[in-house]
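Hi V.,

You were right to ask for the full record rather than a summary. Here it is.
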Amino acid sequence: MNSFKKVLVFGLGLNEGGVGSARFFARQGAKVRVTDLKTKEVLKPSLHELRNFPQIEYTLGKHKNKDIDWADLIIKNPAIKPGNPYLEYATKLGKQIDTDMGIFLQYVRPDQIIGVTGTKGKSTTASLIYEVLSKSLGVNLSHPRGGQRTHPWKNVILAGNIGKSVLETISFVKNNTLVVLELSSFQLEAYDTHKVSPKWAVITNITPDHLNYYQTMAEYIKSKKIIGKYQSKTDYLFLRKNDPITTIPDFLKELKGKIIYYSKNDLPENFRPQLLGSHNLENIAAALSLTKTFGIDKKSALKILSKFKGVPFRMELIKKWNGVKIYNDTAATSPEAGIQAVETLGGNLTSPLGCLILICGGMNKKMDYTKYTRVVAKFAKKVFFLEGDSTDEINKQLSAFSRQTSDKIAGTYDNLEKLLADVKKIIKPKDIVLFSPAATSFNLFQNEFDRGRKFNQAVKKVFKDA
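Predicted structure:
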């Protein structure tokens, strides 16, 4: 990176990706400038992270063409939509535009990467794979084709779409390091640009999402297919058996990696994981199938997988209060993810006396909430909403079902503490309180992680007496 004297980070954001990029290039000795449409006040948490780099310059609250003129390299936030006029201007000038993931690929070989993508389950699946490998590498493993050998991989790192820039991990990656990457569709664009795919690639599932970014569902599916697009016949692609999208001929066309199908039916009948839900059995099966290619003993892998308690903010049990269980599922930003949580917890209440109290709502990504509303109507006793256009849609559909269904609606809020105080008034022992928004967060929060942290803080304050 020493060849780049002037680096423009286009989109600092609030989720550490831009921070990591700015920090990385500043440490490389480059001149770094950051630009973001958000103001200094909004970006305060990110700016605080960069306080030890006074040499970094900022253009905040706006973008300027002269920053584009100045830069040798532009690192764009991967969520910036195509057609951005400043990036189009940069392209006309012949400026090099990349993402932090694209720079990462210049340092880490594709045959060191285990990539995990999907609409739902990618965080959990990536974490499950990491758990098994981190507890198994560095020991003598069985070769998949028989016999014993000393495994070449000595350690493993978990990175990717986990709230930090992948550039922060580069210094820890050696020649014998495996990197498990959770990959969003936005991050996969870098793989298309650099024409590489991970040696091991997992697709958990593909269901409608980000349709406020992609113009069609077909375009979204295409973005996910990139994870296997550049594989060779010596690479591995793990797909969910009988998946309605990833196993059809049109999707499989031109994919050259060795395809391995996984299913929850691969798990022993007596397997009892700590993770809840049928969808998590699929995630566990994916991890088991992949780790098998490293020669890891199935019994050992299942033991590790059974003990995994889950990823923060994904159906995470955060509080037990007077017989009530409170779950934080802020990572559910789509109707499909919300359905999984509602069906899992609403359909598996530990007591017939218990009821599901649902907290949901927020901003829509041009998603259809028809199926979601039917599931909510079936399983939830009361529904508390956060403000947003998805809330308006769910509220409207619930009210249209019947008078009995509309009675489930407890109200709409812009304050989590006030919402939880009202929840506290109606809950009873054995009830489950589920915070699973099924929508994005940007009207009231910085992002879903900020939303999750603020929910935990509000729970701690409102339910502090037990």
